[in-house]
């Protein structure tokens, strides 16, 4: 897919945070910004409006709470994807595919 450059202005704190994150993830600031933009544009218009209202009317704590909740949902989604992949890979013959079946089989294997 072809890419193009989009420039953005950020306050000094945000710019420093992007640089810190980029360094810790061994990525460029542009890659961090692109990931953030990819996420933002997938949000529905109502979420865009809610974010603008929160930025205008809310406090830093409100934004931190929102970021924490989004982080939790991201980890939940990652777990769901990993679980789905694991279950797909485990489908061999009559292998269990539900959580109770997996637990029962795990206990059986451990007690061999």
Biggest sheet character: none
Distance between the amino and carboxyl termini: 51 Å
Number of strands: 0
- The average pLDDT value, as a whole number, equals 91
* Spans of at least 5 consecutive residues with low confidence: none
Task: Give Rg in angstroms.
Answer: 21 Å
Number of helices: 5
What structural category do the secondary elements indicate? mainly alpha
Please tell me what the overall shape is. Answer: elongated
Write down the secondary-structure element order. Answer: HHHHH
Helix content: over 70%
Q: What fraction strand?
A: under 5%
How is this fold's topology laid out?
Elements: H1 12-24, H2 29-42, H3 45-57, H4 60-90, H5 99-110
State the main characteristics.
5 helices, 112 residues, single chain, mainly alpha
Written description of the protein model:
With 112 residues, this protein is mainly α. It is built from 5 helices and no strands. Helix 1 (12-24) packs across helix 2 (29-42). The N and C termini lie far apart (51 Å). The model has no long low-confidence stretch (mean pLDDT 91).
